[in-house]
């Protein structure tokens, strides 16, 4: 197979630059150039069957927001290896993920697909994912580049963010992954950035991604994100997906022939696509295991032979281990968890019987099997378990809810007025209008059926020794192409939890949601809260392991849980207006925002409890090379409790005397350590100059990373608001940079009454 463009005609080169269809690139039979098959991820493989909404089964792992809460690079790597192995088995050569966009607002409907509100954590986990996937010879597609932080108007909205905000927050995770892990492809986002669609944004796709960061893979479009093919190609977009029947190839050819497009630009893009083809077809000796012949009719389950090629049992066990690493114990008053052996346990909530495992949209997986907590609790406690659904839940299959049935159960009829944002397909537009109707119904008031289910559940729970309520968000609330309108749980669940809390038994709430929720008015009235996230197909087994103490929870929230939606960063500009969304809060998103405002939150970034306790001691900060900004930080962490546990040790840096407004603290290091009771370990972090720097827009032509000399604060602890150790020290200016230009010198110095004051 050739891997250079010599001998290719202009037509053949152009044909490589757009897909054959939704999932395959174009072949060139004359030269034996095969197609590449791509498939969705990132939480398991989504390979379409050709029948609408029917996919080939694959293992469903925890979604990215859950994996974010694991803070576990190795776990993420192993999950990506497994997804890569399944992709290989099903013949897919590039998996479309991971997503490393920032969570500007918890309302973003796709937050469950993103790791964190912090770029370091997202970048580190994204790096682990790409390395894992590519280690088995399957390419990844780092997405959605960049600043795709809302779903409403995602294809048109123009993000107005300044350079510093982009560099420090919205681009930083991409930068880390590109530099450390060399993803085979990067997927551009749908939105516009400062007026220019990402697919046509030369600053983003060429100047930053290739020239500055050294990316040499293929830039692929998000699906149908290309608006003007020739300008997109010039900007740096190599591969348009899906294909559009060759129409845009003709535009490229015509532009070259008319002398409007330099053919060398076509050559460079075609060469990159050919390199990707070569990576995807390493030759039979390098193919890792046989590729299965699917040969199943859409909707069929896989045969046992196919499941063994998929290593379905092993991957299900890994999915369980992964979910266990993500589950976050938010609250545990008077040690109600782990459950002692109760005489009578009330299991309430339909999600116990039909687990919520994932969000909606292109990342949905048809799982090879699904565990359910109710079955597992019954197998542990037998007839000591009493169950009631407590609320309406109408799953259609593992990746779709029957929203019409949900509405009907609440006596609501869906009258489709056809109004709402335009969407790529009429079917999607209708599905989203249906989902919006479900959200309105869920906000209350309660319908007769809801009240009856609550009354019944309260009756079942009366007299129990402990009540475990499975609650959270219906799938329709968290899906691609849509954002949430509220952070609250559905009104019937809020009422249900309150009524159960009126009983005398302790109440444990198990939450299934892909992003932060608010917990008023029930939070203080329940004894324990287990955040299970959207934990994948084996999540319920992991939840039961945590409830029973077989697993000591070790997740920590990778996003702040606010007290109210009005507190959240960017709230006043959320989703924008008249085509533009202004990121006026700048670098202050997530904990950076709440800390700057000294605002109380429900659960701070990095929070998560354990069944054991940890002590932090002996902070040492050694300046290895002051001019390079190389600093070694270490401390001792000890398990002071009586069970083995894992602690996520977090290091934050603050720069209180900088010339620009900087966050009080920013995550600059983390490590997850396992400790036996009484065991200690020394945790070491190596910091470099960039860990102390901000993006100085006034240095050089384009700006530069500046480590401004002065005082720095290092804080180490168990969460961003549970900081146990602190040290203040000084570093000099970065000697490689010209001196900081003071603000006064940046202003036009003509005196006026505004600068001199009134006489
Ligand atoms: C999504 C991508 C996805 C692609 C293919 C797009 O709508 O934004 O994340 O990979 O579709 O399904």
Q: How is this fold's topology laid out?
A:
Blueprint: H1 10-15, E1 38-40, H2 64-70, H3 73-89, E2 94-96, H4 119-135, E3 139-145, E4 158-160, H5 163-170, H6 172-181, E5 185-188, E6 192-193, E7 196-197, H7 202-212, E8 218-220, H8 229-235, H9 247-257, H10 263-280, H11 304-309, H12 312-326, E9 328-332, E10 345-348, H13 350-353, H14 373-381, E11 385-388, E12 395-397, E13 400-401, H15 403-409, H16 426-442, H17 448-461, E14 466-472, H18 491-502, E15 507-512, E16 528-531, H19 539-548, E17 580-582, H20 591-596, E18 614-625, E19 630-639, E20 645-654, E21 666-675, E22 680-687, E23 694-696, E24 704-706, E25 710-719, E26 722-731, H21 743-746, H22 753-756
Bound molecules: beta-D-glucopyranose.
Beta-D-glucopyranose binds next to loops.
Radius of gyration: 26 Å
Q: Can you list the strand order of the major beta sheet?
A: 9-16-15-14-10-11
Strand content: 15-25%
Query: Which small-molecule ligands are present, each listed once?
Result: beta-D-glucopyranose
Helix count, DSSP H or I runs of 4 or more residues: 22
Structural account:
There is one protein chain. The chain is of the alpha/beta class and 759 residues long. The protein is 29% helix and 19% strand. It has 22 helices and 26 strands. The strands form seven sheets. Strands 9-16-15-14-10-11 form a six-stranded mixed beta sheet, with helices on both faces. The chain has a five-stranded parallel beta sheet with strand order 1-2-3-5-8. Strand 2 (94-96), helix 4 and strand 3 form a beta-alpha-beta unit. Helix 2 crosses helix 12, helix 4 (119-135) runs parallel beside helix 6 and helix 15 (403-409) runs parallel beside helix 16. The termini are far apart. The mean pLDDT is 94. The protein binds beta-D-glucopyranose. Residues 40, 96, 143, 222-223, 362 line the site of beta-D-glucopyranose (BGC).
């Amino acid at each position: 197979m050739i891997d250079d463009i010599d001998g290719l005609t202009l037509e053949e080169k152009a044909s490589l630059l757009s897909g054959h269809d939704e999932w395959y690139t174009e072949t060139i039979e004359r030269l034996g150039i095969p197609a590449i098959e791509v498939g969705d991820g990132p939480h398991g493989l989504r390979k379409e069957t050709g029948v609408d909404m029917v996919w080939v089964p694959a293992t469903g792992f925890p979604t990215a927001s859950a994996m974010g809460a694991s803070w576990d690079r190795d776990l993420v790597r192993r999950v990506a290896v497994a997804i890569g192995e399944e992709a290989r088995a099903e013949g897919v050569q590039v998996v479309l993920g991971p997503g490393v966009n920032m969570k500007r607002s918890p309302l973003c409907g796709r937050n469950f697909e993103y790791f964190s509100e912090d770029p370091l954590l997202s970048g580190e986990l994204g790096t682990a994912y790409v390395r894992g996937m590519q280690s088995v010879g399957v390419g990844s597609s780092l997405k959605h580049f960049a600043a795709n932080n809302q779903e409403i108007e995602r294809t048109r909205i123009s993000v107005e963010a300044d350079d510093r905000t982009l560099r420090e927050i919205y681009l930083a995770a991409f930068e880390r992954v590109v530099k450390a892990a060399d993803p085979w492809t990067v997927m551009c986002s749908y939105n516009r950035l400062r007026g220019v669609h990402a697919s046509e944004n030369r600053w983003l796709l060429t100047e930053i991604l290739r020239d500055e960061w050294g990316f040499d893979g293929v830039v692929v479009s998000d699906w149908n994100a290309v608006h003007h093919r020739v300008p997109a190609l010039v900007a740096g977009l190599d591969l348009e997906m899906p294909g559009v029947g060759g129409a845009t190839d003709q535009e490229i050819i015509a532009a070259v022939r008319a002398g409007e497009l330099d053919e060398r630009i076509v050559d460079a893009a075609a060469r990159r696509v050919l390199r990707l083809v070569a990576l995807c077809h390493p030759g039979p000796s390098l193919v890792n295991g046989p590729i299965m012949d699917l040969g199943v009719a859409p909707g069929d389950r896989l045969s046992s032979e196919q499941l063994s090629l998929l290593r379905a049992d092993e991957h299900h066990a890994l999915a369980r281990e992964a979910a266990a690493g993500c589950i976050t114990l938010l609250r545990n008053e008077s040690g109600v968890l782990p459950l002692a052996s109760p005489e009578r346990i009330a299991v309430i909530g339909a999600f116990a019987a039909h687990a919520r495992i994932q969000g909606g949209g292109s990342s949905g997986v048809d799982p090879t099997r699904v565990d359910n907590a109710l079955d597992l609790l019954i197998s542990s406690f037998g007839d000591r378990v009493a169950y009631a659904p407590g609320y309406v839940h109408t799953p259609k299959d593992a990746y779709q809810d029957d929203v019409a049935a949900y509405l009907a159960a609440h006596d609501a009829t869906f009258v489709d007025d056809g109004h709402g944002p335009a969407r790529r397909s009429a079917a999607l537009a209708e599905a989203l209008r249906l989902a919006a109707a479900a959200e309105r119904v869920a906000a209350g008031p309660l319908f007769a059926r809801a009240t009856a289910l609550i009354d019944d559940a309260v009756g079942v729970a009366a007299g129990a020794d402990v009540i475990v309520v499975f609650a959270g968000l219906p799938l329709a609330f968290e899906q691609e192409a849509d954002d949430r309108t509220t952070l609250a749980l559905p009104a019937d669940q809020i009422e249900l939890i309150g009524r159960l809390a009126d009983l005398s038994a302790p109440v444990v709430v198990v939450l299934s949601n892909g992003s932060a929720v608010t917990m008023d008015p029930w939070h203080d009235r329940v004894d324990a809260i287990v955040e299970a996230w959207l934990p994948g197909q084996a999540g319920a087994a992991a939840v039961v392991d945590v409830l029973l103490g077989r697993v000591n929870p070790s997740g920590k929230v990778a996003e702040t849980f606010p007290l109210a939606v009005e507190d959240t960063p960017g709230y006043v500009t959320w989703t924008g207006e008249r085509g533009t969304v202004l990121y006026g809060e700048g670098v202050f998103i997530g904990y950076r925002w709440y800390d700057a405002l000294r605002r109380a939150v429900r659960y701070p970034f990095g929070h998560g409890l354990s069944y054991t306790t940890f002590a932090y001691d002996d902070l040492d900060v050694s300046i290895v090379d002051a001019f390079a900004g190389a600093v070694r930080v270490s401390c001792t962490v000890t398990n002071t409790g009586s069970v083995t546990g894992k602690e996520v040790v977090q290091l934050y840096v603050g720069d209180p005397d900088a010339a620009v407004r900087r966050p009080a603290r920013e995550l600059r290091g983390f490590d997850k350590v396992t400790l036996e009771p009484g065991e200690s370990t020394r945790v070491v972090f190596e910091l470099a100059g960039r860990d102390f720097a901000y993006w100085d827009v006034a240095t050089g032509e384009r700006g530069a990373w500046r480590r401004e000399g002065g005082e720095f604060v290092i804080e180490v602890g168990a969460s961003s608001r549970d900081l146990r150790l602190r040290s203040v020290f000084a570093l000099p200016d970065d000697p490689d940079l010209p001196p900081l230009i003071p603000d006064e010198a940046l202003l036009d110095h003509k005196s006026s009454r505004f600068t001199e004051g009134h006489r």
